Amino acid sequence: MKSIGYVDRTQSLRQQVALSQAKLELGCGDRKRDASAIGVDLRDFPCVDVLGDVFDVLVSLPDDSVSNVYASHFIEHVENLDELMSSLGRVVKPGGVIEFIVPHFSNPYFYSDITHKTFFGLYSFCYLAKSSIFRREVPDYGLRFNFVLDSVDLVFKSGRPFYGRHLFKKIAGKLVNISTYSKEFYEENLTWLVPCYEVRYVIRCRASETD
To answer: What is the domain extent for residue 22?
Structure first.
């Protein structure tokens, strides 16, 4: 593994990659959600284990050396999402799991943030991974990588100090996530009545093309 444009401050990346069991948290910011993961960020926060650009980190890793990847409110800032998925497809081992949490396109904080590059909804990762979750099929633009989309959940909440509407949205979220049909019905017909806050995708690297 070569060091290209980043600093492995704790040497945790080198150690875990040597065992082919690295767990990465991309764009961890000032707070890692998974204490056992290797925090990667371009900004210098105390919790960051690897300081540098995510693409520089991934290009230096061996094939099939990563077991899990997590990113919360990061990939919407990435200019080339297909390039990121291609890199992850190389370094994540078969059976490895990727979890992404992103703002839903109806979240007003999403479309007011000028640093956000990509909109996300229920079907977004159906363009990038094999999926049989939804009845609606999406076009194949040749972007699907060696991944299977295992689940998609819509997350409803409001930030402080809006506690009343937070409770209302939590209840709405339980109803919306009852089934795939209710999720699809919500996003097509009710999105702008009760905006969604986040989408959570769980993606698995396929062991073979037949998985």
So the answer is: 6-155+199-205
